[in-house]
Amino acid sequence: MNDSVLQELYQVVLGRKSTPREGSYTCYLFDKGLDKILKKVGEECSETIIAAKNGRQEETVGEISDLIYHLMVMMAQQNIPLEAVLEELSRRSQKIGNLKQMKSVDRET
């Protein structure tokens, strides 16, 4: 799979934003606004974590898919193009030795 599935999904989300359809869940989220969208992103993130912790791969895949969808709705609401995220991921994939160093805290001061 390449990113065409993500592109197609994002175009559907953008289409619902620009041309609302009655009965569309995506349109419902846009209508309710950012707080509702962010609440759904948080819920799906938590559900993804729980599914992964439970070790149920099929359930985890479903929750990851829900999370990606809700992230795309958030991106569209915030006018963040999918290309910007894909470019950032591409840029990050070129990094080698990206392990962040842990900071030590001087508890004596």
Automatic annotation (TrEMBL):
Pfam families: PRA-PH. GO terms for cellular component: cytoplasm. It comes from Lawsonibacter hominis. SUPFAM superfamilies: all-alpha NTP pyrophosphatases (SSF101386). One of its GO terms (molecular function) is phosphoribosyl-ATP diphosphatase activity. Pathway: Amino-acid biosynthesis; L-histidine biosynthesis; L-histidine from 5-phospho-alpha-D-ribose 1-diphosphate: step 2/9. It is found in: Cytoplasm. It is an enzyme of class 3 (hydrolase). Belongs to the PRA-PH family. This is Phosphoribosyl-ATP pyrophosphatase. The keyword Membrane does not apply.
